[in-house]
Amino acid sequence: MRTDTIDEQSQERERRRDIAEGLRGILAVLNSNKPLDAILDYITLYSCRLLEADAVAIYRLQPETNLLKIQSSHGLSREYLKYSTVILGEGPTGQAVNQGKPAAITDITHAMDGLTEPLGPEMTRLFKILSKRFRSELSVPLIIRQDIIGALNLYYVKPRVFTQDDIDLAVSFCDQTALAIENARLREHAQEEAVTAERNRLARELHDSVTQTIFSASLIAEVLPTIWTRDPDEAQHGLDDLRKLTKGALAEMRTLLLELRPVGLGDVALGDLLKQLAQGVSGRVRARVNVHVEGTAVLPTEVKLSFYRIAQEALNNVAKHSEADQVEIDIKSVPSSPARRRKKADSNPSTFSRSVLLTIRDNGRGFDPKSVMSEHLGLGIMRERASNAQIMLSVRSKPGQGTEVLLRWPGGALMTDVTQ
Question: Averaged over 63-74, what is the pLDDT?
Answer without folding.
Answer: 90
